[in-house]
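Hi support team,

I've been running sequence recovery on a batch of backbones for a student project. Most finish fine, but this one hangs at about 90% for roughly twenty minutes before it completes. I'm not sure whether the input is malformed or the queue is just slow. I've pasted the C-alpha cells below so you can try to reproduce it. Let me know if you need the job ID as well.

Thanks,
M.K.
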C-alpha cells in the first residue's frame, strides 16, 4: 500500500517542515564567487517539498525570480550582467556537461541560472525566455544513486533542486561547498520523510 504524502499543517516558514521538526537553526551561510539565480514558478512556492528556495537562503550571492504570477512575462534580461559567465542549468538537447574543463575555460566567475518547478514549468524557462537564447545550457548527466528522494524522480539523473545546485557548485567551487549543501539537504529530506512515517536510510550517499 502506497503511503499518502501528507503536507505539513502550518509549516515553519523558514524550512517548510512541521514546526516540531524545524531545522532553521542549522541553516549554513555560504558566500561564493559563483552567483545562483533561481527562476521559480509561483505554484512551486506553495509546495513544502521545494528545496530551491532553501538554496537561496544559504547562498548569499544568489537571488530568486518568480514566474507565473501574472499575465506579463517575466523579463530576465537584467540577469545578463557583465563580469559573469552566465550558464542556464537545464538538460536540453544541446546542453553540454558541466565539468571542471568547462569551468576552467574562462577566468570569469560563473552565474548559474536555475529553473525550478516541475518539468513542464522548468522547460518554459528554456524555450520561452528569448532573452536567454544565446546562453549556453549545461547539465549533469551522472546518475543520482540515492534511493530516497523528496519527490518521485522520473529519470536516473533526477534530483531535488538543492541536490542539483549542490552537485553543480561542487564542480565549480569544490567538494566542501557540495558537502555543506548536501548536509542541509539531508536534514530537510529526513524531516520530510519523517512526516510521512518513512525511515531515512542513513547510508544514503550525498
Amino acid at each position: 500500500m502506497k503511503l499518502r504524502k501528507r503536507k505539513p499543517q502550518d509549516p515553519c516558514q523558514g524550512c517548510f517542515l512541521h514546526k516540531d521538526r524545524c531545522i532553521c537553526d542549522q541553516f549554513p551561510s555560504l558566500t561564493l564567487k559563483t552567483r545562483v539565480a533561481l527562476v521559480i514558478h509561483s505554484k512551486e512556492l506553495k509546495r513544502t517539498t521545494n528545496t530551491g528556495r532553501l538554496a537561496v537562503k544559504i547562498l548569499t550571492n544568489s537571488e530568486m525570480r518568480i514566474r507565473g504570477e501574472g499575465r506579463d512575462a517575466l523579463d530576465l534580461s537584467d540577469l545578463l550582467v557583465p563580469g559573469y559567465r552566465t550558464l542556464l542549468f537545464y538538460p536540453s538537447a544541446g546542453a553540454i556537461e558541466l565539468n571542471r574543463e568547462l569551468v576552467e575555460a574562462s577566468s570569469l566567475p560563473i552565474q548559474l541560472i536555475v529553473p525550478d518547478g516541475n518539468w513542464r514549468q522548468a522547460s518554459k524557462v528554456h524555450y520561452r525566455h528569448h532573452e536567454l537564447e544565446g546562453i549556453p545550457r549545461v547539465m549533469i548527466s551522472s546518475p543520482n544513486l540515492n534511493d530516497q528522494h523528496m519527490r518521485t524522480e522520473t529519470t536516473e539523473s533526477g534530483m531535488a533542486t538543492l541536490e542539483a545546485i549542490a552537485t553543480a557548485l561542487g564542480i565549480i567551487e569544490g567538494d566542501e561547498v557540495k558537502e555543506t549543501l548536501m548536509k542541509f539537504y539531508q536534514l530537510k529530506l529526513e524531516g520530510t520523510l519523517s512526516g510521512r512515517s518513512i525511515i531515512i536510510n542513513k547510508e544514503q550517499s550525498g
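--
Follow-up from support: It reproduced on our side and the slowdown came from queue contention, not your input. The longest strand covers residues 35-41. No action needed from you.
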